[in-house]
Design a protein that fits this description.
Elements (H helix, E strand, L loop, with lengths): L1 H7 L5 H13 L8 H28 L13 H4 L4 H21 L1 H4 L3 H14 L13 H22 L4 H24 L1 H6 L5 H5 L1 H22 L4 H18 L7 H5 L2 H17 L3
Helix pairs in contact: 2-3, 2-8, 2-9, 2-15, 3-5, 3-7, 3-8, 5-7, 8-9, 9-12, 9-15, 12-13, 13-15
């Protein structure tokens, strides 16, 4: 059971929940707030992220991109704790359950949501699988901005309240940039391992120094977009930027980091994800 919990990557789940909570905060004062689709959106987001994490673990193992003793969290399939067959089955079973949840939203959004849900779930797979896995071609951060920021915030706002707004669009991009920072920490840590197996990420392409700068730039832009969305969100923007700056200061590695330095980045990944959740919650204030 412990191996399966690790495979879910619980420390990163705030990436999916933050977007949904942020959308709730945006439409909290709406005359219409539908709690049932709000909860379904939350469960759908979490299910899609866990399915994507399972797929990433299975397909990276299958394609020889994960090695035992890596600097990141333990990978159950690579270390022999979970069989590849079981992980693959769990991935597609969870995708099926998540799809069933998504179908319930048709009652509030109409049949065209089937196409939206299909794109989201295919994106969860395309991140690590298919003929051209996006995470291996420097597009991981772009995928996160779209599928953990723009899509969940705007569609949840609409399903819950029937409203689209510039405010939700700006916050959705901000959430996406924050989610991209979680991946930046992950790839910043794994740059050496990824380069050794031919996995192309922004960190392997441009180097750790550039990723360190991009992390702070994303945080500044995300905070600025939040203020543009509404001056009432100033506290959320300030809190997030303060935490992000603290993490950014701790991220910097020596030119040739030893394993201990890389492992020390793992808590910063969780802190980056949690800072998104804190941000989303403070949007209610």
């Amino acid at each position: 059971m412990k191996a399966w919990i690790e495979a879910m990557r619980l420390r990163t789940l705030p990436v999916s929940t933050a977007g949904v909570f942020a959308s709730w905060a945006i439409v909290a004062d709406s005359p219409v707030f539908r709690w049932i689709p709000a909860v379904i959106c939350l469960l759908f987001a979490v299910g899609a992220q866990i399915a994507s994490n399972f797929a990433n673990e299975y397909y990276d193992y299958r394609d020889g991109l994960d090695r035992p003793g890596r600097s990141g969290p333990r990978r159950g399939v690579t270390e022999g704790d979970i069989s590849p067959k079981a992980m693959k089955a769990a991935t597609y079973a969870l995708l099926a359950v998540t799809s069933a949840l998504g179908l319930l939203l048709i009652m509030w959004g109409g049949w065209w949501l089937i196409a939206v849900g299909a794109v989201i779930l295919l994106g969860a797979l395309a991140y690590s699988a298919g003929p051209w896995p996006l995470s291996r071609h420097c597009l991981g951060e772009v995928m996160v901005i779209i599928f953990f920021g723009i899509v969940p915030v705007n569609f949840t706002c609409w399903l819950v309240s029937g409203l689209w707004s510039v405010e939700s669009l700006l916050v959705s991009v901000a959430i996406g940039l924050m989610g991209a920072n979680v991946l930046i920490v992950n790839n910043y840590r794994d740059a050496d391992d990824d380069a050794a197996v031919g996995k192309h990420t922004l960190a392997t392409r441009f180097g750790r120094k550039a990723m360190h700068r991009l992390y702070l730039a994303n945080a500044v832009v995300a905070s600025s977009l939040t203020l543009l969305a509404s001056c009432q969100f100033i506290f959320a923007a300030a809190i997030y930027l303060t935490v992000a700056y603290f993490i950014w200061r701790r991220m910097k590695l020596p030119e040739n980091p030893e394993q201990a330095y890389l492992v020390a980045l793992n808590p910063l990944l969780g802190m980056t994800a949690c800072s998104m959740l804190i941000y989303a919650i403070t949007l209610f204030l």
